[in-house]
Write a structure and sequence with these properties.
The complex is a heterodimer. Chain A is mainly alpha-helical. Chain A is built from twelve helices and six strands. In chain A, strands 1-2 form a two-stranded antiparallel ribbon. In chain A, strands 3-6 form a two-stranded antiparallel ribbon. In chain A, strand 4 and strand 5 form a beta hairpin. The longest helix of chain A has 28 residues. The radius of gyration of chain A is 20 Å and the shape is globular. By secondary structure, chain B is α/β, with parallel strands linked by helices. Chain B folds into four domains: about 170 residues, P-loop containing nucleotide triphosphate hydrolases (Rossmann fold), CATH 3.40.50; about 70 residues, no CATH class; about 170 residues, Rossmann fold, CATH 3.40.50; about 80 residues, no CATH class. Chain B contains 17 helices and 20 strands. Chain B has a six-stranded mixed sheet, sandwiched between helices. Chain B has a six-stranded mixed sheet with strand order 16-17-18-13-19-20, sandwiched between helices. In chain B, helix 4 packs across helix 5 and helix 13 crosses helix 14. Chain B starts with a strand and ends in a 6-residue tail after the last helix. Classes of the chains: A mainly alpha, B alpha/beta. Chains A and B meet through helix 7 and helix 8 of A and helix 10 and helix 11 of B.
């Protein structure tokens, strides 16, 4: 019995164990000229910063996957919103707060569109978001005439409000603001998933949609709301991304949806719905980010990096799969 | 006794450290109907799944009579296909047909006759399938899609599939659970014919009458252990129950209907049309009453409950709660006026199998909570109360609900509805697939609930249950109400007459 419990515990904690293992290995192999380039505070903060965009998107994706759906449009929404908020600030002279609100609104609108197609037209999430992925990308390129909109900060025409630059700053020159935003959002959504009615209903719908409906849960409304949340989280990531690269680019964010799904899957979220946690997603995102960082530090060819990441996903999901005897 | 075909002894099997079978044995003979009985979780299905290669045993030996030299030899079954090739087949409780394929393709899946260039020879396939279908008296074109068949017909296809392997042993797991009376009759005929041809039938069922009608011998399991094998003709129903539960069954004594408040109508349903061609029906439910709905499969009882609960549109029909008209368009509306529904399909509609017991129990309560943020202490009080009140046997309330036995799962579903304190509870087949002990507990619970002021509509296809539990019986036939009987009038005869449409038998 005891060994069974230990086994269960190990299974539960294996993504944490994997994270620690990667951390240890990274700490050992990244010593150059007697200096540990991985364990360097600034480098670790870089990992956090790099993780935050994917992490924020993955928060939304986790909820969508728990519902048993998928949202393929988030990457394109990143492209659209980063373009949109840059255009609104630079071309239309919008201030910081209005630009942020407008960005969130664009995200919400896309989520609403996805949600309505899925709940009211009864289409599959995969197809709907595949379509809206193209719609968002097309709209972004149309808006910006296909080119990036550079962000130069200052007051006056053609300049972005200086407050926006905060999104790419570091507190005390060390802790990146995006990482703080990511961690705060993660905590909020962790609370939502574990301690609120809404969270409980998400798990219920993903576990058995029909039974949830019979238990009086308004399945359609919750799905709609979740798709809106997911796209809004993608918008947050989009603004951070625009600030990080100092421009709004219509071609940015491609493939982000799959990175987010990967983080969720590594963190133990089931694509079949009903199972998954925010903390798992955090671990998943950290594993991906750390791996990128280490491979980068070791100067591994970027194409090889991609392959390593691919295999890692397979291994992680294989280890998590509930296997029957 | 004729010759033994299969012998299993000392068989043990554990799932995640829990012993499902503990050194059990069974002997199956040629040309017998061998009933396998026991409460849910007794290990009947597990043993048969080991025999047919679905599970592998942890311990024990299995012997099979060699068809050529007639000697018993030890054998290890490694896969369902291997078992089938050896003539050991099982017709599952949940039918395992591929809905998107036709009958012939289903029967010969994986063994399709091939013609030139390894193309499937459809003509040969259909001819062969037709022959198999004749054996089960199913006169349907083999190229018919399986999805268009009724439950009974699907079962026949399953049987035909089993027989197409020249089955020597066919296991039926609760075969009549989803069959109508006539379909069950046909099934029994097929079973008898198979027996006469020398096939051994293993018949797993909770239904006493069927077991006594069909079987030659009965083997009883209890909690994963072997109790005894007896000849059916030499045993009484009471003896069997005693063997299964290890004690005498406390009969939930019929308390009479003294406390029912006939003056007060809590629910009145008017002019609801169930099927396009049936006439509108109306009925009333009194306070503290258990109103039984009897009917054969397809009588429209489940449809009625779905209409009342707002799952399906109610059309011209009207619903009055405590005398005032209500509009119910979705389950949420029904819950708001105090109606709860325990659906027939426990696993598909009643529970979220991958969720914890605790979370399942709180599901319908969620909408009633004032705060959107959950207070763990309050929730724990609620679940604790119902776990105690209903006597749910569990290891831990965070345990996944799929690990529970059928009876305990049903209690969780009932607890889920009690948690939102409804006045009216609709129970659709509340004891389907539940063992004898848990059944009587559920009956006692229903009594307790009505005494406490709730009113219950119980839909059931089990005559004994209807007679034992209801205060009043409504009988339906093809979407119409064909009889309304007080409990004194509700004899087996009068109920059956009404169930067949009121034609004098």
């Amino acid at each position: 019995m005891k060994t069974d419990q230990t086994k269960v515990l190990i299974k539960k904690m294996q993504s944490v164990i994997a994270l620690i293992l990667i951390f240890i290995v990274a700490s050992v192999i990244c010593v150059q000229d007697g200096k540990n380039v991985f364990l360097d505070a600034r480098n670790l903060m870089n990992v956090l910063r790099a993780v935050s965009e994917n992490g924020i998107i993955a928060i939304g994706m986790t909820m969508i996957l728990i519902l048993g759906d998928i949202d393929l449009s988030v990457g394109s929404v990143v492209g659209l919103v980063s373009t949109g908020c840059a255009a609104l600030m630079v071309w239309n002279g919008l201030g910081f707060i209005p630009a942020v609100l407008a960005s969130l609104l664009i995200g919400a609108a896309f989520g609403f569109f996805n949600g309505i197609c899925i709940t009211k037209l009864k289409l599959q999430a995969f197809i709907v978001t595949l379509a809206s992925m193209n719609i968002a990308r097309g709209l972004a390129r149309f808006w910006a005439n296909g080119v990036g909109i550079p962000l130069t900060y200052g007051k006056g025409e053609g300049l972005a409000p200086p407050q926006f630059e905060v999104l790419q700053m570091r507190i005390n020159g060390l802790i990146p603001v995006p990482a703080i935003i990511f961690l705060i959002l993660l905590l909020i959504f962790h609370f939502i998933m574990t301690r609120t009615r809404f969270g409980r209903q998400l798990y219920a719908i993903g576990g058995n949609r029909q039974a949830s409906y019979l238990a009086g849960i308004n399945v359609d409304r919750i799905k709609l709301f979740t798709f809106m949340l997911c796209s809004m989280l993608a918008s947050v990531a989009a603004m951070i991304h625009a600030a990080q690269i100092s421009q709004g680019g219509p071609n940015e964010g491609s493939g982000y949806e799959l990175n987010a799904v990967a983080a969720c899957a590594i963190g133990g979220t089931s694509l079949a719905g009903g199972k998954g946690t925010m903390l798992g997603t955090l671990i998943g995102a950290l594993i991906l980010g750390m791996l990128d960082n280490v491979l980068g530090l070791k100067g591994v060819n970027s194409n090889l990096q991609l392959m390593v990441k691919g295999f890692l996903i397979i291994i992680a999901v294989f280890m998590q799969a509930e296997r029957k005897e | 006794m004729s010759e033994v075909v299969v012998k299993m002894e000392g068989i043990s099997k554990s799932f995640a450290g829990i012993k499902a079978l503990d050194h059990v044995q069974i002997e199956l003979c040629k040309g017998e109907v061998h009933a396998l009985m026991g409460e849910n979780g007794a290990g009947k299905s597990t043993l048969m799944k080991i025999m047919t290669g679905v599970y592998t045993k942890d311990e024990g030996f299995m012997y099979l009579r060699d068809e050529i030299n007639g000697e018993m030899r030890q054998i290890e079954i490694k896969s369902p296909l291997m078992a089938q090739k050896l003539g050991l087949s099982m017709v599952f409780q949940e039918l395992n047909l591929l809905e998107n394929m036709n009958i012939g393709e289903n029967i010969f899946i994986g063994r399709e006759p091939v013609g030139t260039a390894t193309m499937i020879d459809k003509k040969v396939l259909n001819e062969k399938a037709k022959k198999e279908l004749e054996k089960v008296k199913l006169d349907i074109n083999p190229s018919t899609s399986v999805s268009s068949l009724s439950c009974g017909q699907k079962q026949c296809v399953e049987i035909a599939k089993a027989l197409s392997f020249d089955a020597r042993v066919v296991v039926f797991d609760e075969p009549t659970a989803s069959l109508s009376e006539t379909e069950s009759r046909t099934l029994f005929e097929i079973i008898r014919e198979l027996r006469n041809k020398g096939v051994c039938i293993v018949y797993i069922s909770h239904r006493m009458e069927e077991v006594f009608e069909l079987s030659d011998r009965i083997t009883v399991f209890r909690n994963g252990t072997y109790i005894d094998t007896v000849e059916t003709s030499k045993v009484s129903e009471a003896d069997l129950i005693k063997m299964m539960i290890g004690r005498d069954l406390e009969e939930g004594k019929k308390k009479g209907s003294a406390y029912i408040n006939k003056q007060k109508t809590v629910l009145s349903v008017r002019n609801v049309t169930i099927f396009p061609n049936s006439s509108p029906i109306s009925f009333e439910l009194h306070e503290k009453e258990i109103l039984g709905f009897f009917g054969l499969v397809g009588a429209g009882r489940t449809e009625l409950s779905r209409a009342i609960f707002g799952i399906d549109p109610i059309g011209e029909g009207e619903i009055y709660i405590q005398g005032s008209k209500v509009h119910i368009n979705c389950p949420r509306d029904a819950m708001d006026v105090g109606i709860g529904l325990v659906p027939e399909d426990r696993k598909g509609l009643g529970l979220i199998l991958g969720m914890s017991i605790k979370d399942n129990m709180l599901l319908s309560k969620l909408g009633q909570l004032k705060s959107r943020i959950l207070n763990k202490k309050v929730l724990k009080e609620i679940t604790g109360t119902y776990i105690d009140d209903l006597g749910i046997v569990l290891r831990d309330e965070n345990q996944e609900v799929k690990e529970l036995s059928g009876g305990n799962q049903q209690k969780v579903v009932i607890a889920k509805w009690l948690a939102m304190t409804p006045d009216i509870l609709i129970l659709d087949e509340p004891t389907r697939g539940i063992d004898v002990g848990a059944k009587s507990e559920i009956y006692t619970l229903m009594r307790k609930l009505t005494e406490a002021g709730k009113s219950i509509i119980m839909i059931s296809s089990e005559m004994a249950e209807i007679q034992k539990v209801s205060d009043r019986v409504i009988v339906m036939h093809e979407g119409n109400i064909t009889g309304e009987l007080s409990i004194e009038e509700a004899t087996k005869n009068s109920i059956m007459q009404a169930a067949f449409g009121g034609i004098k038998a």
